[in-house]
Write a structure and sequence with these properties.
heterotrimer, A mainly alpha (323), B mainly alpha (279), C alpha+beta (367), A: mainly alpha, MetI-like fold, C: alpha+beta, Rossmann fold, six-stranded mixed β-sheet, 25% helix, 33% strand
Chain lengths: 323, 279, 367
């Protein structure tokens, strides 16, 4: 049977395939359907990015922009940025922010999702708890900043007084959450409070959609819960956790809403992030050339990460399609 | 592992869950009671965790304030218009990508579109601050926000609609063609109803992102147009922030996203994970 | 002029599926295409329906070339293997869909859908959605959607393959009685040879690249043109025994390899094969052409002794797996006998039904 079902010798028409004639819709229609958003994105994303690239090599400032007088300065803007201690400081802040923000959110979110799914007995209760834990995500990030700024006030803030009431702190003691030492930590706390919900939600839903048969089989084999977690659950959720991490990482990298609202980068630049400085230089100080250099450095790093991420995403989606 | 230590671990983990719930919900509780307190009580040196006086009038205060109503209106106009635009363009493009452009060109195009969502808006926002001045509407306008929110919502809508259209079986559309329906009719009568839940959830995600957006609105607008995230921190009297109004308004503004989430949780999760989680 | 005329149809994806396929289906004819899964039967239907575009070749319906037309401009009805019912519409609306697409008046739609539903005995579920009905009812609904519309050609893709045996038989009987199908040309695709033999006015066996044999069910079953066709039709499958043609005293006989037994041939067979004396051939004997000999041997010999390996009583008949030298044979037996493994039996071959194939090219040497 085998040799008979293999394909026959390739006939001559196969090489000279004709273009298919009957089409459900004309060939150009789908291209137009995709073309409109592509044009929009070219206009509102690519064009400004190129504009920034141009000005990154010029000494453009507010006046220069309006009079059209600015000079080519080569890599000077980049050199300025890269040698600026303010930039170095912000990069260090960013590394802390991403490590303790994004990483903590994914670790906590994964742990909480699995605890919720595995250990809370009633499905109804699980959903209620899930919704409760996801609430912070529904607030605008800026409002989260406002809220935490209020809670973290040194003198009559709720957090300090809660710690006192719980006996964790002397009644006279005051932690200066928004001071030089802790401002970045406070930003991270607010971020973790808000965004642990995202990995939590994604991992929880991923866990729900895993096939129960596999877990029943494991239980029949007598595997302990810990073994099941390590050998089955986590490997099967690996991709989902990775994607939750990347999503959080990119968002934390690019958004500075909370910085604006909670600390404005201060005090004394203790909570500045590169994106925040770029905005300040560009829109508040009108040092457009230098802001452009900042923006491009940020952009290039993002481009590398995004390219890697999209390749990973492509692989995950392909694997899913064949699974 | 012995029976007792297993139970102990279980209790510890559940306790951790409880602590986290407290951590999550305490700020909301404090937000709620603050929104019901009079200003004098808020400004005390020691905050009260159980309000002494309840002032529901704070909520009425928001709606009595023309600035707040304007902020809600602005937010609503911008979010709705942007959502409608994103959804319309995203549905068309997502459909074309899912059904017709399945080759390497279409695939790369779809990933390129998605990549626009993830890029830091900083490279877009600074030029736009200057470029929108050259449009007849100016920077501080509905137009600039509605268009600029496409930067993150259009890629999202396109990508997710593509995912949802891929979930809808092609055969149903083919059956419709064989039945005699023309392409647009087959699309609107058969495919669209099938992806409707997905589409609604995409609309809601777009709405939430536009509704909650702060950075663009803060930097580009503020006088003619002032969405609520920009408006809320400006509840001040002299140098004093009116925390009760801030908190009351935040809670009110949080309602639409929360309701949307509870209604369409599954589809929203698929959306938030860019289609990876089946939901 | 045939109602459906396919000429030189070529379709390839990353490999060649249909290579210059020709097929005519007359008005009123029920034509069944049978072949193994994945061979391209569905692709053929989709080309006729307009869902696939062939690289070359033409499809004509009532003399009109429709090859370049999209499906909604062809008056061709197709049922999908997966039924492809619209999940958000009721059974009524599913059946009404082709009529609505043609903007027929509501009154006519209601009448026609009810007629069809009555015919298919699904009137009671017209208000249900596809998610709420059984597999058989889904199939009837899908069928209703094609019957309601009076098309030029009916295309049915494995319509009953996924149903349980009982409903399958019931629907198969119903196909015989559907007047609508008998009025126009029907192209019916299945992998089940019994369906093909039972339903087809003519059947076509599809092999790699296209139809390898076309004919009435009897022709194709009894005189398969190749090993492929012989093997695909019949259950249990045809017994294929390697053998060699020998000439002795001017008589041609067949020596089975592996057991050395000799079988005499009929005069016609001997005449047709005499040129090939000494060649190796493959002997094809269908299981029902082997009988169990209990009494005296037939006059011309041809009685072989074999060892029972397995016996499956199947209710109306039994299947015996016998070992003959180094080869194995399936034999269809009446039900009133019983065998134990290891037992010896004597088998009588019906010589007139012998088929001879070329071992290299697989072609039927006598036909």
């Amino acid at each position: 049977m085998k040799q008979e079902t293999t394909t026959p010798a390739v006939p001559e028409w196969f090489e000279a395939r004709r273009k298919p004639r009957a089409r459900i819709v004309a060939r150009w229609v789908p291209w137009v359907m995709v073309g409109i958003p592509v044009l929009v994105l070219l206009a509102i994303v690519v064009y400004p990015t190129v504009w920034m690239a141009y000005h990154a090599f010029h000494d453009t400032n507010m006046m220069g922009l309006f009079t059209g007088r600015y000079a080519y300065v080569g890599w000077q803007n980049f050199a300025n940025v890269l040698s600026d201690p303010r930039f170095h400081n912000s990069v260090v802040n960013l590394v802390w922010y991403l490590t303790f923000g994004a990483t903590l959110e994914v670790l906590l979110g994964t742990a909480l999702a699995l605890i919720l799914y595995e250990l809370v007995p009633r499905p109804g209760l699980r959903v209620v708890l899930l919704v409760a834990m996801v609430l912070p995500m529904m607030l605008p990030p800026s409002i989260v900043g406002v809220l935490w700024k209020f809670l973290l006030q040194a003198n009559n803030g709720a957090v300090n007084h809660l710690l006192i009431n719980l006996g964790l702190m002397a009644p006279t003691e005051r932690i200066d959450w928004l001071g030089v030492d802790l401002s970045l930590t406070s930003l991270i706390i607010a971020d973790v409070w808000q965004w642990t919900a995202l990995p939590l939600l994604i991992v929880y839903s991923g866990r729900v959609s895993l096939p129960p048969a596999v877990f029943e089989a494991a239980r029949v084999d007598g595997a302990s819960r810990f073994t099941v977690l390590r050998r089955l659950t986590l490997p099967m959720l690996k991709e989902i956790i990775a994607i939750a991490f990347i999503l959080r990482f990119m968002d934390a990298y690019k958004f500075v809403d909370k910085v604006y609202v909670m600390t404005s980068g201060g005090p004394a630049q203790s909570s500045e992030l590169p994106v925040f400085i770029a905005f300040q230089k560009g829109i508040r100080e009108f040092q457009i050339g230098e802001a452009a250099a900042y923006a491009w450095l940020i952009f290039v790093v993002a481009a590398v990460i995004i390219t890697l991420f999209l390749q990973y995403l492509k692989r995950v989606l392909k694997a899913q399609a064949f699974a | 592992m012995s029976e007792t230590s297993a139970r102990l671990i279980r209790i510890l983990l559940l306790a951790f869950l409880g602590v986290w719930l407290f951590f999550t919900l305490f700020p909301f509780y404090f937000q709620l009671i603050t929104s019901l307190k009079p200003v004098a009580e808020i400004n005390r040196m020691v905050p009260t965790f159980w309000p002494e006086v309840l002032v529901p009038g704070n909520y009425a205060g928001i709606f009595a304030d023309p600035g707040s109503l304007k902020a809600l209106q602005d937010s609503l106009v911008v979010a709705l218009a942007n959502t409608a635009l994103s959804l319309f363009l995203g549905t068309l493009a997502g459909y074309a990508l899912a059904r017709y452009l399945k080759g390497p060109v279409g695939e790369n195009l779809s990933f390129w579109i998605l990549s626009n969502r993830m890029f830091p808006p900083v490279a877009v926002l600074i030029p736009m601050f200057f470029l929108f001045d050259n449009t007849p509407w100016g920077t501080d306008s509905y137009f600039s926000l509605i268009v600029l929110y496409l930067v993150f919502n259009l890629p999202l809508a396109t990508w997710l609609m593509m995912v949802f259209f891929r979930d809808a079986p092609v055969e149903l559309e083919e059956a419709a063609y064989v039945d005699g329906w023309k392409p647009f009719q087959a699309f609107s009568r058969i495919t669209l109803p099938l992806v409707l839940p997905g589409m609604i959830s995409v609309a809601m995600l777009c709405f939430i992102f536009a509704w909650n957006e702060y950075l663009f609105a803060n930097l580009l607008t503020g006088t003619n147009v002032k969405t609520f995230p920009v408006h809320i921190p400006t509840f001040t009297q002299g140098s004093q922030t009116l925390w009760n109004l801030v908190m009351a308004f935040s809670l009110v503004a949080m309602l639409p996203p929360v309701v949307m989430f509870i209604l369409l949780r599954r589809y929203m999760v698929r959306g938030l994970s860019l289609g990876v989680v089946k939901g | 002029m045939a109602l459906l005329e396919i000429r030189g149809l070529c379709k390839a994806f990353d490999h060649v599926v249909l290579d210059r396929l020709d097929l005519d289906v007359e008005a009123g004819e029920f034509f069944v295409v049978v072949g193994p899964s994945g061979i391209g039967k569905t692709t053929l239907l989709r080309c006729v329906a307009g869902l696939e575009t062939p690289q070359a070749g033409t499809v004509r319906v009532r003399g009109t070339d429709v090859t370049g037309l999209p499906p909604y401009r062809r008056n061709v009805a197709l049922t999908f293997e997966s039924y492809a019912l619209y999940p958000h519409l009721t059974v009524f609306e599913n059946i009404a869909s082709p009529l609505r697409a043609r903007r027929r008046p509501a009154e006519e739609i209601r009448r026609k859908v009810r007629e069809v539903a009555k015919l298919l005995r699904i009137e009671h579920i017209l208000d249900h959605r596809p998610g709420e009905i059984s597999g058989g009812q889904k199939q009837r609904t899908a069928l209703g959607r094609t019957l309601v519309r009076d098309p030029d050609v009916f295309l049915l893709d494995e319509p009953i393959s996924h149903l349980d045996a009982k409903i399958r038989h019931e629907l198969r009987e119903q196909f015989h009685h559907l007047e609508e199908l008998r009025r126009t040309a029907t192209l019916y695709v299945t992998h089940d040879y019994a369906e093909a033999l039972s339903l087809g006015d003519r059947i076509g066996v599809m092999g790699p690249g296209g139809l390898v044999q076309i004919g009435t069910p009897e022709e194709v079953f009894e005189r398969p043109r190749s090993l492929f066709v012989a093997r695909h039709l019949g259950q249990p499958t045809i017994n294929l025994l390697p053998a060699a043609l020998r000439r002795e005293d001017g008589r041609v006989s067949l020596e089975l390899e592996g057991c050395g037994a000799r079988l005499p041939l009929t005069a016609e067979q001997a005449a047709a094969l005499s040129a090939r004396t000494g060649d190796r051939v493959v002997l094809g004997v269908r299981p029902h052409h082997i009988a169990l000999a209990d009494g005296a041997a037939p006059a011309d010999g041809g009685l072989l002794e074999a060892r029972v390996e397995l016996y499956e009583p199947l209710g109306a008949k039994g299947v015996l797996l016998a070992e003959l030298g180094s080869t194995r044979l399936h034999v269809l037996t009446p039900i009133d006998v019983h065998f134990r493994p290891g037992e010896r039996v004597r088998l009588a071959f019906d010589r007139s039904a012998f088929l001879f194939f070329c071992p290299e090219r697989g072609v039927n040497l006598v036909d």
